[in-house]
Amino acid sequence: MQPGAEWPPELGRDVLDHQPAAVEGGWLWLPRRRPALGVQATAVPTLLFVLLGAALGPHGFNILTSAAVDHLQAVVWVALAVIGVFIGLGLFAVAADANSGIFASGAITAAVTIATVAGGLYGLVRQSSIALPVDPLAGCILIGICASVSAAVQTADGASPEVRRAARLADLDDVPLLVLGVTLLTAVVGGSVALRLLVTIAASGAIGFAGCLLFERASEAERGVFVTGAVLLLAGIGAYLGTSPLLSGCVAAAVWVRVPGSADRISARDLRTLQHPLVALLLIVAGALVEWNVTVLWLTGCIVILRFAAKLLATVVVAPLARISPSILAVVLLQPGIMGIALAVSAGQLLGDDYNWLVSSVTVSAVVSEAIAAFMPHDYEGA
Amino acid sequence: MARFAALLLILGAMVGVQYAGPPASSSTVALPLGFALIAAYLLGAVAERARLPRLSGYLVFGLLCGPFLLNLITATMARDLQLVNGFALALIALIAGLELNFTRLRTHLRGVIVIGGIVMMGSLALMTLVLWAAWPWLPFDDVGAGAGRLAAALVTAALVVSFSPTVTIAVIAESRSRGPLTELVMAIVIMADLLLILIFALAMQFARWAMSSAPADVGLSVQLSWEIIGSIAFGGIIGAAFAAYLRVIGREITLALLAVCALLAVVAPLWHFELILAALGAGLVVENIAPPQGDELRVAIERGALPVLIVFFAAAGASLQLDVLAVIGPLALLLAAGRFALIRGLAALAVRGAGLDDTPARMVWMGLISQAGVTLGLATIVATEFPAWGGQVRTLVVALTGIHVLVGPILLKAALQRAGEIGEV
Fold first, then answer.
1. What ipTM score was computed for the predicted complex, to two decimals?
2. In terms of pTM, does the model score above 0.80?
3. Contacts of B307 in chain A (CB under 8 A)
């Protein structure tokens, strides 16, 4: 397949930001009606799954015990790899027809958010009596990176070019999360950072090429084996090398999009059945990992406020450059989606309990930010 | 050619990843799982082209890439892969139950009882006698004379002569066989598995009494009833629920099938049920009481079973202890040859006795050679309870299983091929 050609409409963006099948399936009928009131629907399922995890988890009713959460680690790795694949599929399809102005705008938005959140948070941590158990600078930068991502928005078929540009910009701000986030995470894990990143990219690329050779000529039963095997391998590569399956999944997806053929469509179609339960599980595990203490609540408040300010600042800087109305861009950028939670969970898996405060504060702040964004009036749908 | 290139790329990725250093995370099971799934499948396809069972390809993959040869699947990874064992056993036994139709089986009932009974009991008696006589010359700790030696010989013989319903059913499922020989072999190995559990439990009681390592358990009959009848009843309840789901809802059948297997695999050990019997009971109820209409269940089984079988047998291959085989190999080979001769001879006698010597049933012995997980599980129980001689017997059983798990599927597939029953489902 040529990049972007005949691309199913839902693959040109982060489908995972609109994850929960529950909404589409209809059992959460109430949120579906909320857009009519001027409220975004995506917040409610994220909130529900995280709250469900928090209630069931070790710090809640302890139905999902610490041992059970540990056992779910492998499934979470797979969920992260699937998310990585969808990031890659969306990113490279969007990048194919995005101009350099949108790229630059996406990069500036992310840079402003990371600098504001990480810098502001580090300053506040140093000023306060809050003592973090590990290197606060690395932690604050990781939080800044997690906070930098914006959820993609669904645009109607007849949406204006301005709204489409805003949606594209929101897609492209995943790049810093992957590049900076995974590099920093690898550095914090320790060992030879360059070697492990290089091997991750090379090995994931090899799996990507192997997928291209296998997927198309396979029968339906075989294809299930190959696609599942490829995703497991991608998850395993990220987990083994400590570089996050988000990166390995994204690299393989890049190969599937760029190499002529239909590996991208096949993998997207086969993985879509796994995507919703896996993302729901990731959010439940993220919720289960949340610790409720003063440090987490304090950090959450700081992150929410700093992120809100950073996104407004980024809007002011970027809106003229990208030729998008600030009122549209601000609302689009304010929604955090689940990518930040995915990176934070990835960090929690690799770095252990010492970084639970990071997972907790990123997860809770994402949910709060999502709720705030949901109540922002927006008039871009179908614009 | 494309598949070979893909295999090389995946091998390269595995080598590269392991070259970069030790694992950064404690949970790396996804890596061997993915590797096994694709690479073992490709090797299974090569085996099929060579007219061997696909399972042999999966096993050889595990053996080649396992800790004793290429070490691409390290010892830790091989152990992690065993996590799927319970789930795979449940799925395999459920498939067996779904294949056993009482109406069709009624025509073979006499053959099953005569052949199964003569082969199982005859082998057990003769093997016990041989082991009892040869015990002083075997590399096992002294267990004294008289009842102690007889008990040890009986327990060891029960392990040596056991069959593998798992491997047999898996070969039948993956080769999509159906016919008189298929049904006869499957019914015999399942009956033998029931008998084995009973005989093993009785032999262990006798060994406990003879060696006074623990008092005889007065609740033996209760325990056996619970294990056998309780397991089948529990499985039957799950099967009835699954049958109701198929009839009333009938959607997402692959997912429902896998969920049933997961439920059986988790709950059966918790309640001390025999997993294989419980899953078999579930399959029997679905097939014989509320058979599904249409092809949906068969399609779901094909889709769901393939990856599970690949990983299960690749893991089995990776966990074959070649070092043990090297140490105790000659004795294991000798015993394997003896077992082979016993099964072949007794089966020929039994087939003639049952009046089936002009039918494909004369090849039934080829389906009775495999040994796998159940045997190893029972050997571990012996090793735990009688650490001295039991540990040595377990080592022997590991080596024997290694031989039979490789040879058994090849023989069974050859028999099914000769009987013209492959691809009939």
1. 0.79
2. no
3. 224-225, 228-229
